[in-house]
Amino acid sequence: MPSTNHHATGGYGLAPVQFSRLTRRGVLLGLSLPQLVVLGVALLTVVTTLYSGGGIAFAWTAPVWVTAGLLAVVPIGGRKLIEWVPVVARWAARTYLGQLVYRRRVIKPRPAGTLALPGDAASLREWEDPETGAAMIYDPHAQTLTAILGVSHPAFVLLDPGEQQRRVSGWGRVLASACRSGRIARIQISERTLPDSGTGLEEWWRTHGTDDGSWAATTYAELIERAGPAGERHATTIGVALDMKAASRQIRTSGGGMRGAAAVLRQEMSTLTTALRAAELTSTGWLTPGEVAVILRSAYDPAAAPALERHGDLGRDLAMAGPVAVTETWDRLHSDSAFHAVLWITEWPRSQVYPGFLAPLVLSSGIQRTIALHYTPVRADQAARDLRKKKTELISDAAQRRKIGQVEDTEQAAELDDVLQQEADLTAGHGVLRVTGLISVSAPTVDDLDAAVSAVEQAAIQASCETRRLVGQQAQAFTVAALPLCRTV
Prior knowledge:
Elements: E1 3-6, H1 33-52, H2 54-60, H3 62-73, E2 75-76, E3 79-80, H4 81-96, E4 101-103, E5 125-128, E6 135-139, E7 144-152, H5 161-181, E8 184-195, H6 199-208, H7 215-227, E9 232-243, H8 248-253, H9 257-278, E10 282-286, H10 289-300, H11 305-310, E11 325-328, E12 333-335, E13 338-347, H12 359-362, E14 368-378, H13 380-403, H14 410-427, E15 431-443, H15 446-462, E16 466-469, H16 474-481
Helix pairs in contact: 1-2, 1-3, 5-9, 13-14
């Protein structure tokens, strides 16, 4: 999970940015704890058999220590075999318990205030704020309360470099304020493409067009009417999750319970709205339960999205917004009218890039997808402790490698440079956030899904990013990537 530092840069030119590398450091000499355990088992087996039974016992126990050694060192799909054991074991347990298939019980009513979502998302609760009318989603397991804000913005790539840098600096201040709060558990930025029902183009024509009955106006209106259902539009939301454990004292002061938590979250919502206004991002308002219901329904059933937009009163009940049927396989998900796959951005650009480097992904056309960026703010004191610990471990590992004669790896030296840079930025007063990127891709058929996933992977390469298709956890990953609920996977 890479971390990035956000701060303003002076000057009128567009300044490059750089992400820290995904840490691959282990407990000892680059080895993770599971690797050390199985290697310890292999070594203990070899030593015990040699001292107790000699060569015959050594040969008889060969399957044990050979298997343990292979589990520790053989990689498959970017992971060692031992790291696949919990993934496969959890998948096997869910298969045995029948948790890969979800069917809504139409006759049996759901408890009031719950969301009709499958899996562990079924525990989410709905709370409508009486003051703002916003939908607040309560997660009893993670102890978070989430509100979602709609955002509109101009095309970033069409702005001049000076204006781009000014907006980047403003967005950096937004994230820095989240780090200083100490009560925000997570911020989720979701940018999704939707099949346009034609309402977007028609609204634009009503606002900006001149319908004077001329030949040009009539022709333009006809083109909009024909092109609307075949087009697509982009929608952006920002979800902010309140950490109810960290804000427990303020919640008690505000009256306790959900009302107190809602009051504290309203403070964070007001701060975020003010910061976004300073960054020249236009908020379209905090989403109501009906608007959240449309997003959830459209994610699981994309074919229904145009009809929901044309008929504003339909599909606005959160209790009925979930899918009717979900079937999860090893590397994809099938829900209602579409197949889905979730990709994880495992590597951000290692070299310096300019803001807007995700343009190949964001501007990809003809693909229904959602790009979700999860920012986890780290308090300054905790970030300082983590950086000191990480720096000490990296320096100790380097000294240990020199002592045993192991050649220093360039990637390990670069990771130490990243830690030193983060420490310097933190000392200068900037914020540190952990960033996780997920991409949810949807298509009506399996073949279309595979083609769309390939196109997204190529677009990620153009953006200097590396993606990996998640396996064994597609259902949970989909709720994190496609739904703006600030959840974790």
